Amino acid sequence: MNAARVDEVVGEFVNLKKRGVNLLGLCPFHNEKTPSFTVSPAKGIYKCFGCGKAGNSVNFIMDHESLSYPEALRYLADKYNIEIEETVLAKEEIEQKTERDSLYILMSAAQKYYSERLHEDEEGKTIALTYLKERALTPKTIEGFQLGWSSLGRDDFSQWAIKNGYNREYLVKTGMSFETEQGSLFDRFRERIMFPIHNIAGKIVGFGGRILRSNAKEAKYINSPETDIYNKSKILYGLFQARKAIRQRDEALLVEGYMDVLALHQAGIEHAVASSGTSLTDDQLRLVKRFTDNITFLFDGDAAGQKAALRAIDMALELELNVKMLLLPADHDPDSFVKAYDIEYVEQYFKDHSQNFIAFRIGLLPEDVLRDPIKKSEIVREMLNSVVLIKDIIKRNLYLREISKLLDFDEKVLNDELRRMAASKFKKDNKAPDLTLAEPQVISQEQAIRSQATAVNQEKQLLKVLLLYGSRMYTDDMTSAQFIYRETSGMEWENDHCRILFERYREATEQENNLADVNFLIHDQPEEMRRFVYDVITERYQLSPGWEKFLRRTVVSPDANYKEEVKSAIGYLKFTKISKIVEENQKGVALLETDEAIDELFMLQQVLLNMRKQLAVELGIG
Ligand code: GTP
Ligand code: MN
What we know:
Blueprint (H helix, E strand, L loop, with lengths): L5 H6 L5 E3 L2 E4 L11 E4 L4 E4 L5 E2 L1 H8 L4 H11 L11 H6 L2 H22 L1 H13 L4 H6 L3 E3 L5 H8 L4 H6 L3 E3 L5 E3 L4 E7 L5 E8 L9 E3 L15 H11 L2 E4 L2 H10 L4 E3 L7 H8 L4 E4 L5 H16 L3 E5 L7 H7 L2 H11 E2 L1 H8 L8 H15 L5 H15 L3 H19 L12 H11 L2 H15 L3 E3 L2 E2 H9 L7 H17 L5 H5 L4 H12 L6 H6 L11 H27 L6 H25 L3
Parallel strand pairs: 12-13, 12-14, 14-15
Antiparallel strand pairs: 1-2, 2-3, 3-4, 4-5, 6-9, 7-8, 9-10, 10-11, 15-16, 17-18
The structure holds guanosine-5'-triphosphate and manganese (II) ion (MN).
């Protein structure tokens, strides 16, 4: 525990910035845009103000890597070169380990096996190692990326694994072996250079295998299939090796191939990663965003590469990443480029040729396009479609200016068009959640609640049930109105009309101990107030039809069940108000200076989060 400093342990996975005595970053346990994940080196703990997770170095590793307590200790011991004495696992114990663990163990054993084939077998040495040397890879790179070699035999690895006590079920599950109908096993990877694929904790989750001889019949690369431990869309090849450099340079370099990553790292450009086995995904970019806000794409200049680049730009902009594009001279890929030039030249070239995405896109256009007004306006619109994804208004304007300058286009016209696009995008983004797309996640439901149900709407809904059902009994000795007063005492209103009407109604009912009704409330009010009241009692502020469907609840008619209406109006109002405070606290963390203040806020936050969870359960939205 003394060695495993929380800032170092967490810092491997989270991009932390200094804030007062603490460090602050984006929480790795939930999706957040405003950093509220704090790490206190002095206390050795982390806390997230968004989701409430907290703990020390060991807890972090357990949570983040889904490890058990002893495994987390092993992980940390390994990181800090502390030796742990462990009894060797017996064959039975291997079987008893949890399944995910077993898969990890198998993959790690496979890596060692394949590396041994590369370095020890005659065939491996003469064919594969020679090939890697021809491609100018140094022993250090081969070692660092744990490369290996799968031999020619149809079941060499499978046999070895079975003989050494590995469960055949896991061999099949990891996709390392295929099982025939007769029940015999054969290897997925044969006669290939083996590239282990690591998750960010450094565990091997899959392999890529490159064929040696070019051979039209077989794919150049094959990859492990998706498994319980290998989610392709959430893994970047090389990130485990690159993460320190990414943090130091505050930038990630995204390239296409395994070989490119290796060559770049070897040349000293260690912030390079590749998306392997899939085209680039949103989740992979989120992974990058944990370490840096800046990404440079280095794609091939061919048509496929260009298409991939355009897609990647928009995805990255939407995640509020700062995007740069790099094109290499024709006939070069990163691998050949770093081998052809020395590192100073390469670094300088990268610096000089990084372009923003606007300049990049314009650079791709054939000459004549810009002379054709129709084509040119199409291009402008396409680029605005990307710019509109940027949330930061200052950056947005800088890009507008860039388009205006490079394409000689009136900035004001661009600005008007962008606004129109932004408005229609806003409408589209804020429509009722689409059931077919909505993921069954608490977080998306909460987000939906926040966008659909503003505090003001909830206040109106509460006022509505008060006016409509206030006089009816809620329990044997309490009217609905009295119940509402009790539940909302001390509450601060956002909407003045609601506050005034609520107070007026309350005074009337409390003083005379009799029934106020809507007409009483508005008989001496100005026109505007009367209209407000009628709007309130005729509109539904709580649940839109789409929202009801979203919650998969049939909504009972209000009159038949006014108690439910009263209860849920209060519930939603509380939920919304608490959510708002939670959010404000989250933003507020960054401003706090002392540990005491942070502790206090954190305690409050825990209480609020618990209350909110409880409410969500009661409302059936948890
Ligand atoms: P070298 O050809 O040895 O330089 O490897 P490379 O990594 O540069 O490969 P290349 O540029 O041809 O392709 C880029 C990436 O696309 C590879 O690293 C693989 O991830 C992927 N890829 C290439 N060919 C195949 C294939 O046949 N099948 C699959 N599944 N992926 C491939
Ligand atoms: Mn290549």
